[in-house]
C-alpha cells in the first residue's frame, strides 16, 4: 500500500524537517502534503515555500490517509480532542512523534483504535539520514510494511517494542545532539592546532561521517576499526588514552543515562 496524502500536524523544527525529508525522498510532492501551523508568520513562510499549509487540523486530517502528530507533549491532549471526531479507524494511519505519550493515552483520547506507529526519529530526517525507531500498534502487515518503506527512505528504521521508546528517545533522538557536540569540540581543537574554523569544520564533520559509514557498511564493532588506526606507542592511542583519562566514554554514557532517566519519569 501507498500513502497518497499525508498530514503533518505541527510544523515546528521537527515537523518541518519531516516535510523536507518526505519531499526530498520523492515519497510525496508538496501538493499532497498538508502541514498545519498555528503561528501566522510560520504559516505564511510555509505557503511561500510552496507547501499546502493551514491552521485547521481537522481539515488536514480529513484530506489525508497518513496523519503525523508532531506537537509538544503538553499540546497532545488538546490536539487529540480537536481531531478525534474526524479520525477514522478504517481509513487513517497515525504516526506519533510525541515524546513520552504512550499508545494507550492516544487511543483513550480518540475513543477508537486506528493503526498507530510511535516513532522516534532525529533531525537528520530532513536530509534522509534519520535513525527512526518505530513501535507499531493495531496495524496490518501491509500498513507496517508501508511505514517501513516510508522511513527507510528517510534513513535507517528499526521496529521496537513500546517499552524501549524511552531508550530510543535518549539514544536516537538526543544522540544526534551528542554527536554534534563531539564535532563542535573537534572543530575547537582543530582551530587551536592551526586550522581555520571552516577547514576544521569540514574535517571534523567528514571524519564523523566516515566513522559512521565504516560501522554501517562493514557491520563491525567500533573497537575493531579503532585497532586499525592505533599502533604501539603511536599518536592515536596517546590521544585516546588522554581522552579516556578525562572521562570521555563515561561522560557520554552518563549523558545518555541522564536523558533516559528523565524520559522514564514522563512515560
Your description of this structure?
The protein is an alpha/beta fold. The protein has 2 domains: 6-160, NAD(P)-binding Rossmann-like Domain (Rossmann fold, 3-Layer(aba) Sandwich); 169-266, ProC C-terminal domain-like fold (Orthogonal Bundle). It contains 11 helices and 8 strands. The chain has helices at residues 13-25, 40-48, 57-62, 76-83, 103-110, 141-152, 165-192, 197-218, 222-227, 235-245, 248-266, and strands at residues 6-9, 33-36, 52-54, 66-69, 93-96, 115-120, 130-137, 155-159. The protein has an 8-stranded mixed sheet. The model has no long low-confidence stretch (mean pLDDT 94).
Write the layout of secondary structure elements.
Layout: E1 6-9, H1 13-25, E2 33-36, H2 40-48, E3 52-54, H3 57-62, E4 66-69, H4 76-83, E5 93-96, H5 103-110, E6 115-120, E7 130-137, H6 141-152, E8 155-159, H7 165-192, H8 197-218, H9 222-227, H10 235-245, H11 248-266
Parallel strand pairs: 1-2, 1-4, 2-3, 4-5, 5-6, 7-8
Antiparallel strand pairs: 6-7
Helix pairs in contact: 7-8, 7-11
Name the descriptors.
267 residues; alpha/beta; Rossmann fold; ProC C-terminal domain-like fold; elongated
- Overall structural class, as computed from helix and strand content, comes to alpha/beta
Which consecutive residue ranges, at least 5 long each, have pLDDT under 50? none
Q: Helix count?
A: 11
> What is the residue-mean pLDDT, rounded to a whole number?
94
**Helicity, as a percent range:** 40-55%
Major beta sheet, strand line-up: 3-2-1-4-5-6-7-8
Distance between the termini: 32 Å
Task: List the helices and strands in order.
Answer: EHEHEHEHEHEEHEHHHHH
Number of domains: 2
CATH superfamily of the largest domain: NAD(P)-binding Rossmann-like Domain
Main sheet properties: 8 strands, mixed
| Count of β-strands | 8
Question: What is the architecture of the largest domain at the second tier of CATH?
Answer: 3-Layer(aba) Sandwich
CATH class of the largest domain: Alpha Beta
Calculate Rg over CA atoms: 21 Å
Specify the overall morphology.
elongated
Report strand %.
5-15%
CATH topology of the largest domain: Rossmann fold
